[in-house]
Amino acid sequence: MITKKKIPKHIAITMDGNGRWAKKQGKARIFGHKNGIKAVRETIEYAVEIGIPYLTLYAFSAENWKRPEKEIEALMNLLVASINNETPKLMKNEIKLLTIGDTGKLPLATQSQLEKTITKTKENSKLTLILALSYSGKWDILNAVKKIIENKELNENITEKIFEQYLATKNVPDPELLIRTSGEHRVSNFLLWQIAYTELYFTNTLWPDFGKKDLEEAILEFQNRERRFGKTQEQIEC
Ligand code: IPE
Ligand code: IPE
Ligand code: MG
Fold first, then answer.
1. SS3 label, residue 151
2. How far apart are CA 22 and CA 31, in angstroms?
3. Mutate which of 13, 14, 15, 20 to test ligand 1's pocket (most atoms within 8 Å of Cβ)?
4. Is 64 among the residues known to form the active site?
């Protein structure tokens, strides 16, 4: 059983494996994306249930723009429809929606649905749900550097704390746990700066099959890990 005392403050998830899930059943990739929605819903429900304050879901990377146009279009439509459908539930569960990424690149209909729900949910405070869309960790860091130069804050006094205020995750604590599904063991340009000390968890489960039990298992493993942050085991224990 997971202990209430050590619930991660921020979990980030790379939701991978939709295409392979569909292929296994002889279906088109988009069938996998559609079935991934159920896993998203279950993950969010469980996060609310156990009181996780921040959940970041990697939904579309900057590199995913290289996919076939048809798949991108279907993904964007799916995103608009799901956010629209789920907005009442976000309100009911007091979930605040945010996005990180180069969202100006998204189709206008997607941008406007996102803005609508972000505005509607902005006073909610139980769970902050962050969707990473057109996101890349390198983009995030470079974008921060550009803004710092613009604000003339680039000098020898710059600190990590100041730098973090320019990242897309401004005011969001770094993830304590990063989960990636589908058996791939790579970061794929997700939160680079922010995962400096994050616990990594990989599962072979394909995203559409991911559910409460999988999330519970990941959290259980997290709770049994010793986070040392560079110190010795003896220092941690006392
Ligand atoms: C993750 O599943 C969803 C997105 C990247 C949008 P994939 O579409 O990457 O599925 P696989 O990895 O090809 O199985
Ligand atoms: C990472 O998955 C991005 C998302 C899950 C949104 P990909 O399927 O795009 O990653 P690679 O290309 O296999 O590394
Ligand atoms: Mg993939």
1. coil
2. 6
3. 20
4. yes
Residue labelled with tokens 């794929």: 188
Backbone angles phi, psi at 178, to 5 degrees: -120, 120
For a substitution probing ligand 1, which of 18, 185, 204 has the most ligand atoms within 8 Å of its CB?
18
Task: Point out which residues pair with 199 in neighbouring strands.
Answer: 177
Q: Is 16 known to be catalytic? A: yes
**Structural domains of the chain in order of their starting residue, each with its CATH number:** 4-137+176-223 (3.40.1180.10)
Q: Helical H runs in the chain?
A: 18-24, 29-50, 69-92, 108-120, 137-150, 160-164, 212-223, 233-237
In the predicted model, what is the mean pLDDT of the chain?
A: 97
Average pLDDT score over residue span 125-151 = 97
Would you say residue 152 has pLDDT above 90?
no
Mean pLDDT of 12-18: 99
Q: Is the CB of 59 under 6 A from ligand 2?
A: yes
How many A from CA of 232 to the centre of ligand 2? 35
